[in-house]
Amino acid sequence: MAKIWRLDDKEIRAVKGPEPGKKVMRLNDGGGLFLRVTAHTDKKGVERVSKSWEFFFTMKNKTSCAGLGPFAEDRQAPGLSLKAARDKAYELRKLVEAGTNPVEDKRSRDAVLCCSRSGEVRGATWDEFRDLDGDRPMWVISKDKTKSGAEYRIPLSPAAVKLLKSLPHKAGENHVFFAPRGGEMSDMTLSKVMKTMHEAKAKKDGKGWIDPTSKRPAVPHGTCRSTPRQWFAELGVERDLAEMMLGHKVGSEVERAYQRSDMIERRRAVGLSWAAFCHGEAVADNVVSLRAGVA
Questions:
Q1: 3-class SS of residue 81
Q2: Quick one: 63 and 124 in the same domain?
Q3: How many CB atoms are located within 10 Å of the residue 73 CB?
Q4: What is the pLDDT of residue 251?
Q5: 276 Cβ partners below 8 Å, 6+ apart?
Q6: Range 262-265, long-range pairs (CB < 8 A, 24+ positions)
């Protein structure tokens, strides 16, 4: 690998803008990590310069870029310091070495943590996420985007919030997981991620990621929807609560006319335990007790 750690904080802070006649300039730190320096004009007509981190990687002879976020000018400023950007680039290089696309990997993890449908993740926009810095973070999907035709609130676990905060933002782009050229991703994106992961693992162990029931390679619906539903059932989560975790309608129209709660705080507790399970951590006792607490 070519020399890495070429930049230093003093050099980065000294950069006042791209080279004359250019709008964009990249400084190479090595190992795929670049500092992007961009000159632009804001809405008030004031010329400004922004600095952000990018990670370039190559998979299957195709080079892609993952935005890591803005450069933090000081400890109080939002964004990533040089050290933090290097640490992040190291993590992403490991993913690439394992055959996983780091850009698409985050989309898949969000779908798993939130038990979401592919379309909900691909169509997610930043204005749908509330209170990410508070005690009750949630994702609110409008009724025109849900399969049920009703607004759906998803309580977010700390793991989901951390993932969202690690994502890059693109000027003029409201999609959380945007396509390389902007806008919503293709409906085949998540399927492609899982296929790539399966092929990489199969190359190593001769097995890959196989659905134990169908005996076929795992797919998004099974991983993000069927797997958590089975886990809820085996853990003793009551049926209505488990169905609501997946955004399903529960009961008849008459029942829903009387039972109007979406049990969001109870679902938050289940979501915390699901996230812990996904990260190989101990499962909280409060999930098991949900059913036991019903008279």
A1: coil
A2: no
A3: 14
A4: 87
A5: 282, 283, 284
A6: 262/152, 262/153, 264/138, 264/153, 264/155, 265/155
Nearest to 55 by CA among 34, 39, 71: 34
Q: What is the number of structural domains in the chain? A: 2
Give the per-residue pLDDT at 30.
Answer: 93
pLDDT computed for residue 80 by the predictor = 84
Write the pLDDT tens digit of every residue in 235-253: 899 999 999 999 999 988 8
pLDDT of residue 292: 35
What is the pLDDT at residue 26?
Answer: 93
Q: How far apart are the first and last CA of the chain?
A: 63
Torsion of CA 88, 89, 94, 96, to 10 degrees: 120
Give the per-residue pLDDT at 285: 53
Indicate which CATH number applies to the domain containing 229.
1.10.443.10
Domain endpoint, select from 65, 97, 129: 97
Domain final position from 97, 116, 135 = 97
Q: Could you tell me which of 221, 211, 194, 225 has the C-alpha nearest to residue 114?
A: 225
- CB-CB contact of 167 with 66 (8 Å): no
In this prediction, the residues of the chain whose per-residue pLDDT falls under 70 are: 1-3, 75-78, 282-295
